[in-house]
Amino acid sequence: MALNNAIVRNKTIIQEILSADPHFILNKVREKELITGREYTKLNSNKGDAEDLVIKLVDILINKGRESKFIGLLQDEIVLETYPKLEDVEWEDSGSTASSSSLSIGKSFRQALTEKELLKVAETLGQEWEQAAIHLGLKTKDLDTIKAEHRPVAMQKQKMLVLWKRRRPPGEATAQDLLRGLKDMEDLPVETRLLLTGNVHINVKIKYICMQGNNKQEE
């Protein structure tokens, strides 16, 4: 799977980035239970340099087959704040459809997600879509109504997201808002997180460019 190969493909740059603060990512990995307490203790007592610790950590995660969950962790807002250079890592192959999808939604920082874009997000959700709905503030009765009115599961997932959007305040139904609502969901698919995070990264860059333009005008 392309996502699993992404860690191996970007191993050198990931290790370099995480070496800036190795113990932060080590604690986060343990917090998400991607490594055991024994593995954590052994790594935490590592007498090598920062890069050596990160190399050993990444190797353990690869050997345990935790690449997808590790990628999801690396896309977490708090982790990105600590390691901003992770935003430049290409998680998908250049020919991957998931990568092109992430670049095609939400071109404006203040643009709300359209129903077509919500459908793209819905397509990345599996059986955990009802759990996602609860994280987004929907009630069980909302899900019962959606299921009663729409038989296809694919339609149910999209309608759930549409309902979320309708209940959001004006201007607060962007990919960034959706990702924020789902950030505490441990079972959130990596594809969903990558799709939304890719969009957020684009939005942040657009906002930064706009801010630079405004600053030049003020000068």
Automatic annotation (TrEMBL):
Span of domain Death: 114-186
A Pfam family matched in the record: Death
Gene3D superfamilies for this protein: Death Domain, Fas
Signal peptide: none
GO-annotated biological processes: regulation of apoptotic process; signal transduction
Entries under InterPro entries matching the protein: DEATH-like_dom_sf (IPR011029), Death_dom (IPR000488)
Protein name: Death domain-containing protein
Organism field: Gadus morhua (Atlantic cod)
